[in-house]
Amino acid sequence: MRGNKFMGLLCAATMAASLFTGVGTLGADATESVTAVTGDAQSLGTPLADVRVRQALAYAIDMDTIVDTLFDGKATRATSFTSPGEWLNTDIPVYDYNPDKAKDLLSEANWDPNYTLDVVYYYDDQQTVDLMTIIQQYWSDVGVKSQFRKLEGDLAAQLWVPPTDMVNGPSEVKWDLAYAAVAALTESEFYNRFASTASNNSTVPKQDGLDELIEASNSTMDKDEQIAAFKKIQQVVAENVLAMPLYHQVCFIYTSSDLDMKGNPVGNDQFSYEKNILDWNINRDDHTLYTNGGPQEFFWYPMVNPGYMLNTELLFDKLIDADESLNPTDGMLAESYEVSDDNKTITFHLRDGLKWQDDEPLTGDDVKFTIELMLKTPGTNAVASEAMSCITGAQDYKDGKTDDLAGVTVDGNDVTVNFDKVSANALQVFSQWPILPEHCLKDADPNTLQQNEFWQHPIGSGPFMVDEVVLNNYCTLKRWDGYWKKGTGNIETIYEFASGENDSNLVKNASAGKIDYAWSKSTDDAKAIEALDNMKVEQANIRYTRCFYINQFPHEPNIK
Amino acid sequence: MASYITRKILSLIPMTLILSFMIYLGMDLMPGDAVDYLIPPDALSTMSQEQLEQMRESLGLNEPLVVRYVKWLGGLFHGNFGYSLQSGVPVSTLMKDYLPATLELTIAALLISSILGILLGVISAIRRGGALDQILSVFGMIGVAIPQFLLGLICIDIFALHMNVLPVGGRMAYQGQGFFQRLQYLIMPALVLGFSMTAGVMRYARSSMLDSMGKDYMKTARAKGIPEWRVNLVHGLRAALTPVVVLIGFRLPMLIGGAVVVEEVFQWPGIGTLFVKAVRSQNTPVVMMIGFFSVLLVLISSILVDILTAALDPRVKLS
Questions:
Q1: What global pTM score does this model have?
Q2: Which of A122, A471, A505 minimises the CB distance to B267?
Q3: Of A286, A335, A425, B256, which alpha carbon lies 20 to 30 A from A401's?
């Protein structure tokens, strides 16, 4: 009954959104847009199924002021998941702070003032708590009650379980809105989750046309075509407020006055990009560069996140290099590579005489081994595992039907990867995920790869190799003479203080002159380090968006 | 006394088992499990439930609580303390790596606080009501009141950042440095931890000393013409030491987990920070091992305190 009513209230989004809300100008692709729900918000199984309620919630928040005050201007207000730049559709509707409009929309939707939104979050930093408190107040000002609670425990089960019926629901999660973040390598990480087939879509019912738009964005390796496809998706997401992007975090890069980076640009340090560190000069007698990110219990495990720590980036080479915006560029371990016209075959030509830091030869077999390992490791990042899954024979290999991944062939220095269907992000994946040594990891259980002793003292193929390791204290990397490229710089040793993802000692060490290069996303770190005479702070835009996911599937109110 | 000690040691076995099970149960009752922490929340949203279940299965997290506990206990009897769920490193290796750092710090702090606390407490009692007593009382109050992290940060600011005479943190600059080369790293954290512990010992020593100074045997000693310093130090101090020794004895468990804040502030690679991290990440084998040692140390301390009390106070008989 509820489902029928829900379905009956579906109407064309473009027209309805314009008529009811008057938001933004719909672009030329509006006819391809999705359907939105309009009518009585209280009768849809959840008031959040009504686009006017979602729009009202967006209008009610003054994100510009929040960014200026809470974040001291060191973040960017988000109008879309996509960060400002060439990938952003600037014609999408923008929900500038307008409390009167919010009240009107709520009134039109017959918003029940007694309904209390159940809002969840999982970060435990003070800034998140402050932000939640501020947003609660903004919503209260337009007559929307909300309660915020922090989730503990099995987050995946509480947040990202999709309903069995992706049209009518009911919801498999209890909350109304979830505050979350997406740290993305590619645009698809922002938008694939809105597809009705996505394994983590717990919030957005199947929308007419959206699955096709998402499929189109995933079916080309051509950057211009990808940009055009994602702009259409952005339009749909924004018009219908399928989720509510709040702000983009930026990456702060800290460098000391002792370091000369020889004009190399800084970029998105959440991933790997060509820094040309072998050309850098350090003004210290011992030619040591100080940084953080040293291992606490083990060296960062690259399957989930391949370039988060500088040591992963410097210890392991990838097949392809990337620029500071993470666009794939030249070959790295591969001297060159070619993509076939139909985008379904990539051939890598490995350099001659490559070797591992223990002098074992690095061959095409290591490349194939790494791809196979990525396929079998449960924790492999979604973008990487998606790309790997497109390789011919991937499913059979994952299912254990064969020990040989048919889609990857090795012929001397040439490694050919054949795909059953185009993997839009394959080049990005090969420019970020390192090639791992088969001779060290061939006996590793993929399910417990992170626990393998290899990560205590890894052997790589990058410009620096592990020297000393005192876990949870420091480690040193030394310049590796066997690297295929020689630089002009003078850094011989990299001294890394042990730290996790958030380094509480970063400012202290920088104050003591013991940080020459580091990065973080913390505005507090940036403010403190800016004040130091010996340090410089630069910013880089990154794909990192904080947002609310809005549960639009029917569900009982969690707060009564 | 021998039978008393034997009985006490035997009683350790059931108590250790009960307490270790309670820790295991506590870990199990916490929301979520280790897999939820192995994958960062942002990446978690892109993983399927099947993938997560596969990881749980591989790590043995899907077995019933009792089975997991018995397996852990069985391993313990065979000298296998398990593996860190985060890194796969044997817990015994972690203990070997982390425990010496913590012991180095806490033993230094315990020595500083015990010697300084008893000394200042006795002086304060002897100079009761005088200017020195007042100053030391204020000193004691500050020591009790000031949080370790604040004192630590103040010290770093003064000695490391402005005067540049001590390192800002860590335990060593390079591997292979001897104790005396590493001493510069130990000074600040040991003094900060020691200072915060000194106040308690000092206040105990002062009140205990004052108590014993009013006793008849002190008057008798003075009446026999024994010099005042000897009366105070030999007759007074010995009796006054009993409650102080009890206090110090009960601080022994702190040797393992009592320096968390100081370790964090001074980037000291000790077991305290490991323990906190292990609890947060539900790394049960690591938590169990540290918890087990702590339990054992508390129980052993209790026996030691009994023995020392009997040794110091002739009125106490162990039976």
A1: 0.81
A2: A505
A3: A425
